[in-house]
Design brief:
seven-stranded parallel sheet, about 40% helix
Length: about 475
């Protein structure tokens, strides 16, 4: 059977590994079983293991890749081509790969990006026998949104006026009215603002009289505005703006594909896939890591100011000073607010000098990195082990973000609890994998966001961090 062959091949390959993962062989048998049975399988892995599953996934595919579709984002694709394929060749294994939106002519593994996945699905390019394999499935919706985004730039308006010269003055007037309205609203150099709902209506009324429009206008006019978020990205320096649109629920586009085809989803345990596929008739397996049983040292004082208070910035600086003082290893400060993060970085640099850097992958041994949550998730594998992680602000999305505001508004219309159904689960989905490296390094976690103690939902945050042991006082090492 495929499971036995994959097990034997992987066992030979693991002799070359210096630090083999405890679930390599189990994962390879599960992947081989799903490939053989053509079923729908979801495998949940412990947080922090996002690059250790490659061998367990790829070895069975070396033996059976007929009708297999591997969906990789850009980071995963680079890792696959530059690290994992040479790793397989070193072990004497070969994996034939096929790229592009056209199905492979033979038994090659079909590699698709999220954007290509959508395009192939739209033109019905999948056979019933195609099995989708999606690593890090919890991030699929995010990558699909980016792949499906529509961007209307200044040159697109020019192209539309050139196509219909008679409507040029009316189109120019509409563009100028929108520009004045948007730039009058903001004083920051760059920002994102919700587009007026009347903009699409006015545009449809005008272009509807003209006939077929060049891309991307045709796609813009055909989309259902109630299912898309629409905003303008302003550049005050150039006095230009870009109209951006993203779907609220991109997985709905692929609902039939994911429900009707066999699939293998690898996702982080404890992180929900955003309105993902129906779990009925799906084999659901958890592979827990023993390291999760080690309690995390957590410093989260009970009386801390809330982020929207005047004294919060001063509190944050004072606590960061205390936490950084005397630490011999790397400290990371996570903060999504760009203005507050830049200010904190500057003030800490004034205190600790060149040890403090902003979103840089070359820190000193006892350095301090101030970064956003997304930067940390994209670069954590390029950094040394953490001695300390400071959460300045929990990763709860701001309603000032037009995409978040549109998704919240959609849930409000359905009468749902938009915070507990959307913002809190997504915050926990960022939190769980972000702190995973601490469990491996034995570092310390500090939460300086007063909401974790002052709000009722803070108990859910603390439960997501379990197991942890409280630190009542900061003591020197």
């Amino acid at each position: 059977m495929l499971e036995v062959q994959a097990h034997q091949q992987l066992k030979q390959l693991l002799h070359l590994e210096e630090m083999p993962w405890e679930h390599h062989l189990t994962l390879s048998r599960l992947i081989g079983r799903s490939l053989r049975r053509q079923d729908r399988t979801r495998i949940r892995l412990s947080a922090g293991e996002r690059d250790r599953w490659w061998l367990g996934l790829l070895v069975p595919l070396c033996l059976q890749s007929q009708d297999c579709v591997l969906v990789l984002n850009e980071r995963q694709r680079q890792r696959f081509l530059q690290v994992e394929l040479p790793r397989l060749r070193q072990g004497g294994l070969r994996l034939a790969c096929w790229s592009g939106c056209k199905a492979p002519p033979g038994s090659q593994l079909w590699l698709l990006s999220p954007a290509e996945l959508v395009n192939v699905h739209r033109r019905q390019g999948f056979k019933r026998s195609h099995q989708l394999i999606i690593p890090e499935a919890e991030s699929l919706a995010h990558h699909l949104r980016q792949a499906m985004q529509l961007s209307i730039k200044t040159q697109d308006w020019d192209r539309l006026r050139q196509a219909y010269p008679t409507a040029g003055p009316a189109l120019l007037d509409l563009h100028e009215r929108l520009s004045r309205r948007l730039f009058a609203t903001s004083c920051r150099s760059t920002c994102d603002l919700p587009m007026p709902s009347s903009a699409l209506v006015s545009l449809r009324d005008l272009i509807g009289l003209l006939g077929p429009a060049p891309e991307p206008w045709t796609e813009l006019l055909n989309l259902q505005s109630s299912q898309w978020a629409s905003w303008a990205h302003l550049d005050q320096n150039l006095l230009q703006w870009t109209w951006a649109l993203q779907p609220l629920e991109p997985l709905q586009t692929l609902h039939s594909l994911l429900e009707q085809h066999p699939s293998i989803l690898l996702q982080t345990d404890g992180v929900s896939c955003e309105r993902s596929t129906d779990s009925r008739a799906m084999v659901d397996i958890q592979l827990h890591d023993r390291i999760r049983t080690e309690p995390l040292r957590l410093f989260a004082p009970r009386r801390q100011p809330l982020p929207n208070t005047e004294i919060y910035a001063e509190h944050l600086l004072d606590q960061c000073r205390r936490l950084i003082l005397g630490r011999r290893g790397l400290t990371l400060v996570l903060l999504d607010d760009p203005g507050l993060r830049q200010k904190l970085t500057t003030e800490l640099a004034g205190e600790f000098g060149s040890r403090v850097i902003h979103q840089d992958t070359a820190p000193e041994v006892n350095g301090v990195i101030c970064s956003s949550w997304s930067w940390w998730m994209d670069h954590q594998n390029q950094l040394p082990s953490l001695d300390q992680l400071i959460i300045a602000l929990l990763p709860v999305s701001s309603l000032e973000d037009p995409l978040t505001a549109a998704r919240v508004e959609s849930l409000k219309k359905l009468g749902k609890d938009w915070f507990r159904d959307l913002l809190l689960p997504e915050a926990l989905a960022k939190l769980v994998p972000a702190i995973a490296p601490l469990r491996q390094s034995g570092g310390r976690l500090a939460i300086l966001d007063g909401r974790v103690r002052a709000r009722s939902w803070g108990k859910q945050v603390l439960r997501a961090l379990e197991p942890w042991a409280p630190l009542q006082r900061l003591l020197p090492d």
